[in-house]
Description:
Layout: H1 14-45
Keywords: Antenna complex, Bacteriochlorophyll, Cell membrane, Chlorophyll, Chromophore, Light-harvesting polypeptide, Magnesium, Membrane, Metal-binding, Transmembrane, Transmembrane helix
Family: Belongs to the antenna complex beta subunit family.
GO cellular component, one term: plasma membrane light-harvesting complex
Amino acid sequence: MSDIDKVYPTGLTIAESQEIHSSLIQGTQIFGMIAAFAHLLAYIYSPWLK
């Protein structure tokens, strides 16, 4: 019989799913900040769109 605490396709509990999701969101935000900073540096130090 299936466990009622598990989420169907992954087999994770709700708490485990939320933990993974929050880590994924935080990693995406950090990546986005690094990418924005890299684009700012590329704009400053190159004749990009000038």
